[in-house]
């Protein structure tokens, strides 16, 4: 097996959301043990930081290569514990490995600078150094990629990292830990610590004196609590929080391209991503034609166990998720929305919800103010560009936004006006290791991926050198 030895004695049980069968019972760590793991990580960190960036890069590259070599096994784990279709799981493994490859190279470019001096006999320069021992908290919807895009830059920068994976999806995380250690990452430097007490573990990460940085991906509510707790220790934070992404289709859009982009953005992982299209804004004159095209594509989706060939829509992560989506659809219908497709639980099993299209949706409905996290297309009509921008920005969230248009003036105006950290123009998939991923407003702080993702794990040190003329 790729993950740690199973512990059948009262540990953390992991279930398949498609079948509700128990996959494994694994060791669950208490906060006292996690505190000792943090201390050991910090004790081995200086030796790792002292290695050259090229040396660290070679280790990371071996980790990347092992992930690719075990892509099928990792994907099977992801599908089993998260429910996403196997093809998507394979894509996630490749995406997660790409962050390791990227930061292996980017770690060699943690450049400082020399600054023209302000006085004779003095020289001014800066260097960048790893922030120290770090902690990460990752969600269940991308159990591989959410770990690698935190751990890879931390290790590349010379830091140590202790990660708490989501309780629902720890198996892929443990497999990544195993592969990292096989690649040469010191065992105490990077640890994965599943737990049955996530609240206490989050508080520990915020308050432990050796943890210099915490990176969290999850809900805005939890992020707010972590931010409050981190204030005591002045712990540095990266927070990737909730979203409420608008997907705007203007009357000059390529409709077929827009429909394809919507299907990719909305139904990936059954709508359970933080950057999924959440509110679909369609201009009046093309509304009916656009909806007809979406209906045709939704009818072709295949609901089922993610491990079965041909499945495109897997289960939601648990019953609470199903009940939330069901309640949002019911609320919208009670307020005047119309169900064009789906609208109910699917026959495939208790964890499944039908791909759904709602029309007649208004900005006042709960389905437009909540992060749906399910396979629901909620369509809102709009009259003009100004109204579309007003509706799109009328949210405390600011993670991702999408729009389709061909007029270059409109593209620039809307791109600049949308209050989001990421904007997809004529494309429904924006995630890549080479670009900065992150939001503004209640959607978080900091960026992951790109060169900016490395800076999240580096401190800038200013050095003044005197006595040069003596």
Automatic annotation (TrEMBL):
Root EC class: oxidoreductase
GO BP annotations listed: gamma-aminobutyric acid catabolic process
Signal peptide: none
The protein's Enzyme Commission number: 1.2.1.16, 1.2.1.20, 1.2.1.79
PROSITE patterns: ALDEHYDE_DEHYDR_CYS (PS00070), ALDEHYDE_DEHYDR_GLU (PS00687)
Alphabetical UniProt keywords: Oxidoreductase
Domain of life: Bacteria
Recorded coiled-coil stretches: none
Domain spans labelled Aldehyde dehydrogenase: 12-462
Active-site feature positions: 240
GO molecular function per UniProt: glutarate-semialdehyde dehydrogenase (NADP+) activity; succinate-semialdehyde dehydrogenase (NAD+) activity; succinate-semialdehyde dehydrogenase (NADP+) activity
Family assignment from sequence similarity: Belongs to the aldehyde dehydrogenase family.
Name of this chain's protein: Succinate-semialdehyde dehydrogenase/glutarate-semialdehyde dehydrogenase
The species this protein was found in: Novosphingobium hassiacum
């Amino acid at each position: 097996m790729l993950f740690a030895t199973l512990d059948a004695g009262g540990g953390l049980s992991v279930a398949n959301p498609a079948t509700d069968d128990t996959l494994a019972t694994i060791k669950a760590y208490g906060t006292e043990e996690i505190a000792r793991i943090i201390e050991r990580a910090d004790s081995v960190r200086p030796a790792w930081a002292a290695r050259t960036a090229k040396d660290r890069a070679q280790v990371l590259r071996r980790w990347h290569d092992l992930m690719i070599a075990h892509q099928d096994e990792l994907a099977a784990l992801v599908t089993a514990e998260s429910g996403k279709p196997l093809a998507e799981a394979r894509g996630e493994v490749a995406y997660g490995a790409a962050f390791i490859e990227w930061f292996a190279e980017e770690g060699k470019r943690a450049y400082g600078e020399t600054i023209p001096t302000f006085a004779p006999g003095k020289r001014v320069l800066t260097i960048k150094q790893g922030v120290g021992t770090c902690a990460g908290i990752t969600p269940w919807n991308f159990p591989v990629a959410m770990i690698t895009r935190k751990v890879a830059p931390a290790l590349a920068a010379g830091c140590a990292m202790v990660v708490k994976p989501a309780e629902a999806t720890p198996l892929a995380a443990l497999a990544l830990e195993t592969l990292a250690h096989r690649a040469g990452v010191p065992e105490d430097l990077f640890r994965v610590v599943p737990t049955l007490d996530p609240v206490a573990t989050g508080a520990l990460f915020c308050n432990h004196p050796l943890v210099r940085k915490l990176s969290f991906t999850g809900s805005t509510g939890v992020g707010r609590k972590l931010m409050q707790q981190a204030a005591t220790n002045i712990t540095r934070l990266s927070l990737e929080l909730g979203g409420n992404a608008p997907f705007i289709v203007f009357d000059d859009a390529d409709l077929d391209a827009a429909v394809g982009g919507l299907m990719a953005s909305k139904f990936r992982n059954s709508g359970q991503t933080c950057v999924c299209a959440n509110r679909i804004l369609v201009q009046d004159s093309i509304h009916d034609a656009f909806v007809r095209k979406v209906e045709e594509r939704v009818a072709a989706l295949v609901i089922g166990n993610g491990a079965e060939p041909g499945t495109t829509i897997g289960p939601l992560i648990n019953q609470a998720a199903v009940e939330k989506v069901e309640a949002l659809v019911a609320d919208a219908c009670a307020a005047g929305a119309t169900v064009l497709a789906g609208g109910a639980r699917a026959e495939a099993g208790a964890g499944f919800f039908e791909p759904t299209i709602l029309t007649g949706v208004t900005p006042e409905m709960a389905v437009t103010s909540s992060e749906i996290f399910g396979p629901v297309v909620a369509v809102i009509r709009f009259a003009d560009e100004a109204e579309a921008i007003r509706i799109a920005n009328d949210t405390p969230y600011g993670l991702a936004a999408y729009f389709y248009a061909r007029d270059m003036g409109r593209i620039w105006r809307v791109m600049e006006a949308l209050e989001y950290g990421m904007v997809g123009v004529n494309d429904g998939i924006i995630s890549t290791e080479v670009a900065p991923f992150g939001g503004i407003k209640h959607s978080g702080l900091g960026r992951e991926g790109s060169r900016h993702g490395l800076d999240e794990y580096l401190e800038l040190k200013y050095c003044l050198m005197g006595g040069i003329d003596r």
